[in-house]
C-alpha cells in the first residue's frame, strides 16, 4: 500500500467573505471525497477570505496509481475552483 499526502494552497483573489469562499471552492470536498482512495479536508486558512489550504491523503496499491490520482486531483482543482493553485506539495509516506 502506497500513501501520499497532497497539500494545495489556493489563492482566491477578490474574495470578500467566508460565504463567497465556500461558493468559489465549489464543493471540492464533496466531489473528490467520493473516491474511497482519497480523504480530503480543508486543513488551513479557515478564517481567511482570500486563501484556502486543502490536504488530500491518497492511497493505492502502486506508486503509479497514487501519482495518477494526485495529478487528477490537481487537474480538477485547476479546472473547477474559482481561484489559483499557488503551491502543491506531495509527501510520500
From TrEMBL:
InterPro entries: DUF503, TT1725-like_sf. This is DUF503 domain-containing protein.
